[in-house]
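Notes from hallway chat w/ T.B., transcribed later so I don't forget. T.B. wanted the structure written out for a chain they're using in a teaching module, and asked if we could keep both sequence and structure tokens in one place. Agreed to drop them here.
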Amino acid sequence: MTTERVLVIEDEESYRDSLNFLLGREGFTVTLAETGPRGLEEFARRGADVVLLDLMLPGMSGAEVFRTLRERTDVPIIMVTAKDDQVDKIIGLELGADDYVTKPYSGRELVARIRSVLRRQAAGASGIPSEPTRLSVGPLTLDAERLTVTKGDQTLSLPPKEFALLNLLAQNAGRVLPRHVIIERVWGADYFGDTKTLDVHIKRVRARVEDDPAEPQLIQTVRGVGYTFEA
């Protein structure tokens, strides 16, 4: 019987009630919050192993809640977006969400996604290897213990997924990595989400390490295949 804790931050009472029943039936310990501030309070008081976060919350938005949580923790966060709303999906991906679902969603799919992010978290499926802890390639030095990248006299801290992506590409400098290989190594073999998340993360990493992200010299796109790091 699973004992993982799920924090649901959802303003629609019907969804809260159904999620409480569904997830409780699956053996999860469920905490409910109807607003962003209440969700942050519940997380501070009870903690959680995964957060199910509605993007369209009244008052304090889901995006604001996400950023606040990310300042405190790396807990997996699944964003809930409006039906077929591509803008919401893109916002969720750009924030760095671990996954997303769109309303209305099936209970079976939602439970599968929750268990998927929990498995990846438990397995440490960040794509960050234990050895070596430091890697110098081209103008960059990557520190896997601190999740930092140094270029010249500038050192930046990267979110775990962005560091994992850059580290994977740098370790394989000069090799073309297919998109499905990158996704499997960084997000895990059982990742459910759209491959758009890879492009979003590539864009964010380029913004950090390229002199001109619009004309990238380090992280190159190989059209129809994937990406490569050119040292």
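Follow-up for T.B.: The chain has two domains: 5-123, 134-229. Might be a good example for the class.
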